[in-house]
Amino acid sequence: MTEPTSTEPTSIDVRDPGPLRALANPVRLRLLGMLRVDGPATVGQLAERSGEAAGSVSYHLQTLAKHGFVVEVPELARDRRERWWQAVHDFTHVGAESAAGDPERRDASEAMRRAVLDSYHRELLDALEAELTLEPEWIEASDSSDIAAHLTLDEFRELAADLAAVRDKWFARGRDRRDGTRTVRLITHAFPRVER
């Protein structure tokens, strides 16, 4: 059984177009997510899990490393040919509000956020399909819901802070694998609805 780590979660604030474009690639997003959730891995392990060719995985890891998202961990290698990689941060924050006056940054930010939303969509569909193999109690504990509420800007900010507190609490508790655990994904979105 792994003991929970006591280190605080780390994050990277991405505002430059280069790193944003790098993350707009769905393969890179998936590889970074695997390293964040499952921990350090070799190119071969990531290729097997992702279904990508090892050469492609290596290329994408080099791109992620160039922008500071992943690093090599040579101390895990058993020989000179084996290359291990790990994520540098637990979270990525994209300052979308800061891109409003910069068309290049806005376009890169939008492309990256669209890629993230596409990955969420695929992950949710995969989870729906996987229910066929899950025990009923794990399915019953799942939740997929939405609401619409009429809020002031201050109330909207309070809602976002409440959701962040819930996310942070459960990330801290479930950061490390323990006996009896499964990886559980929490994906939340709070946004002003476009009135038509």
UniProtKB/TrEMBL annotation:
Superkingdom, taxonomy of origin: Bacteria
Residue intervals of the HTH arsR-type domain: 18-90
Molecular function GO terms recorded: DNA binding; DNA-binding transcription factor activity
UniProt key word Secreted: no
Keyword Transcription regulation: yes
Keywords: DNA-binding, Transcription, Transcription regulation
Protein name: ArsR family transcriptional regulator
Organism: Agromyces protaetiae
